Fold each of these.
Amino acid sequence: MHAGGLGDGDGVRLHPRGGETFTTLEIKVNYLRPVFEEKLFASAKVVHRGRSVGLVECDVTTENGKLVARAVSTCSVLRGEKAEGR
């Protein structure tokens, strides 16, 4: 697992509403244990979704429930002209 595997494309992201998109302001991943050939599960939740900023957390665990990694992402919500073409 690499930081890109936990980034905006895989679970740690806001779900934009119509006419909205987002960009990442900050992303932090804490890797807690190595994984070689195990099935992993990601569980993400939106902790805060304001008008312009959102905060998302994601835990990655093994089948046995052992925590492998925790990611936290702060996103900026874009609307109107700022969201066009993104």
Note: Helices lie at 3-6.
Amino acid sequence: MAYLRIATQASILQRPLPPERAMANVGSLALAHVQAAGEQDRFWTTFRAVAESAAVRGNLVPDAHLVALRPRNDVATINSHDPGLPPLLWWGGRLAAGP
């Protein structure tokens, strides 16, 4: 959803994508090795544990969201160049993900 919001936003991009094109880009990720993560039962409990472990606020909220989605969606690794993500990678006493 964030991609669609940003890719179609005229206040962010000089030439935003038309919604159909942005959705087609997302649709092109429908590959066997690509998994769409989703919130499941007890997501909020997991998110709060991640967020409270690193005093998450502001721009770290989406990062904490990704880390909280990881265990419920059988995701072993999160690859990111985001400098805000590393503090969240250690959660629950073990490395949650890594570059």
Note: Residues 1-34 form one domain.
Amino acid sequence: MEQEKKKPQELKHFEWKSVPGVPEIYSNYLYIGWTLDDVRVTFGGIKSVNVNSDSHIAEEKGSVVLSWRQAKNLRDMLSLVVDAFESKNGEITPPYLADPASGEIGKEQKPR
């Protein structure tokens, strides 16, 4: 006789508690690496961009390591929040950097 598949138990809502000293990190660049056990997301900030080169500088701000289960949960949550944002504000598109020497700064940017 086959064992019946059990439904995973749903977790109850957890109350978030603010703790003094917990950092808030802004990131406009990230890198993802993984092992068999977990996923590491390293967050950074772009410090220098040379429009005439493929070489740029990003400064590491911090990393978060997640179990694969929590990585999947994060993926699903981000998908929901991005879909909700885009439904109200339109599609998020990648930015295009103006070359300071071109006189394009302050003008609407078009994809190249």
Note: The two ends are 63 Å apart (CA to CA).
Amino acid sequence: MSKETVQTWPQVSADFGDRTSQALSLQTTLLEGYGYQLLRTLGEGTYGVVKLAHSAQHRSNVAVKIVSKTNASADYMRKFLPREIAIIKTLKHPYIVVFLEVITALL
């Protein structure tokens, strides 16, 4: 994949205890390395979460979709997510988000 805006990260659950804070710290560190400062959660779904973040590069707030590779089905990762990315990249409308980049983490 080339540069688009879907962030991939393993889902974090309260069941992990200390691992939760470690995973959140790693997630924040990874995204900060790309110039994103996480602000708050906008929504949650079956395979991930959407967060409000500030992009230093774009000097504005952006929505960051974080997809859990561990919870998402192979079908979703292979078929549906790439199709979602391809469709969103083609949309040009003032009331639809602009797709910026994809960041993939093997964590």
Note: Residues 74-90 form the longest helix (17 residues).
